[in-house]
Design goal:
This protein is of the alpha/beta class. It has 13 helices and 15 strands. Helix content is 39%, strand content 22%. The two termini are 20 Å apart.
Length: 376
């Protein structure tokens, strides 16, 4: 029932009973129990036609919550998520000039305290998105922030809520399969282009995270130029021929300090008719499409979603992208190529994905049992 309310906010009790094949008596009883446990609340549904009156189910105003934190390159954000899947942004705070891990984590900890204030007992999990590979709950390395091996364990210490740490690209992929462009996909590939390429393979709404949590580093597959070595240490990485650094190399510009802004500038120059910028953008879009075809061949997904700058890069050279994608697919895929869709969550994917993972956590059987012990 909780899952249905999350999937379809504003759903009626009658509709849930129909979907779950419950008698109306049993549905009424379950709702009463969930109300007692402060999980759901009911309000009369607007009368429609001649059907029997029913109620709309919503998250209980005193129910459990997830505190969501999202660390980004330039700032961090906090939000609160309720059982109906609603995510409410609390604040956005830019990093100070030093932006070392100690300062940023201290600021995020006070942000978490502001999220919890007045609802300390209701916040049952803290879900954190970080812009880097995550291994054993620690950030491995972020070259833009110049952070390495950062441990977040203290962030939620003393709150009584477990801390869940996830990679931003993987979480954005989760959000697309739950409430975005890939809803209903059994197998989805999400790809995000920012300073590099990241993403996730998502199976039935859950990310394939690898044995140690670092799967999805799609940018470091050798779809690139074997004569070039990547900053990651490997040779021939796909990243190196797609991202803003690739554009800078094609255009003879110095390595950009802010890859995202530089990429947006080059896309704008191409759109305004700059021929050299147009050629660089087309080459990058073709490299992106060829690699995506490789991912499609490898994973046979229902759908591929594009996040970050991948969508505008494709849009800037749509014909060349489409031709390269088809050309890279194994011929048996070409009759019905896996659709490549723009992500629906735009810049909020990681935040919504972190909320979804947190809500999964607080609605497990054992988490609900703990909650009901607190509200006998
Ligand atoms: Zn690499």
């Amino acid at each position: 029932m909780l899952a249905e309310v999350r999937r379809t906010p504003g759903v009626t009790r009658a509709e849930i009973a129909r979907r779950l094949r419950l008698s109306s008596g049993l549905a009424t009883e379950l709702c009463a129990r969930l109300r007692e446990l402060r999980l759901l609340t009911e309000e009369p549904a607007p009368a429609r036609g001649r059907g029997r009156p029913t109620t709309v189910l919503r998250a209980h105003p005193e129910g459990p919550l997830v505190a969501v934190l999202e660390l980004r390159q330039e700032d961090w954000r906090s939000a609160v998520a309720s059982l109906d899947g609603a995510v409410r942004l609390v604040e956005t705070v830019r990093h100070g000039p030093g932006h070392g891990p100690a300062d940023v984590l201290a600021a995020m900890r006070s942000g978490l305290d502001r999220v919890r204030r007045g609802r300390e007992r209701r916040v049952r999990a803290v879900s954190l998105s970080v812009p880097a590979p995550v291994r054993g709950g620690r950030l491995v390395e972020n070259s833009t922030l110049r952070w390495r091996a950062v441990d977040f364990a203290d962030l939620a210490a003393g709150t009584g809520a477990p801390l869940l740490v996830g990679n931003d690209a993987i979480l954005a992929g989760v959000a697309e399969t739950r409430t975005g462009a890939a809803v209903g996909a059994a197998v989805a590939v999400h790809l995000i282009l920012e300073a590099g390429i990241g993403g996730a393979l998502i199976l039935d709404g859950r990310p394939m995270e690898g044995a140690h949590g670092t799967a999805g580093e799609f940018g470091h597959m050798p779809f690139g130029d074997r004569s070039l070595r990547c900053l990651c240490g490997a040779r021939g990485c796909w990243d190196v021929v797609v991202d803003g650094n690739a554009l800078a190399r094609s255009l003879g510009d110095p390595t950009p300090s802010d890859v995202r802004t530089y990429t947006e500038t080059v896309l704008a120059r191409a759109a305004s008719g700059d021929v050299r910028a147009g050629r660089a953008v087309r080459d990058a879009a073709v490299a992106l499409a060829s690699g995506l075809a490789g991912l499609a061949n490898a994973h046979d997904p229902d759908v591929i979603t594009l996040g970050g700058l991948a969508a505008p890069l494709r849009a800037a050279a749509r014909d060349a992208f489409d031709a390269a994608y088809l050309d890279g697919l194994m011929s048996f895929h070409r009759a019905a190529p896996p659709p490549v869709l723009d992500a629906a969550h735009a810049d909020d994917g990681s935040l919504h994905g972190a909320a979804a993972v947190g809500l999964d956590h607080i609605t497990t059987e054992s988490a609900l049992a703990t909650w009901s012990d607190l509200h006998p």
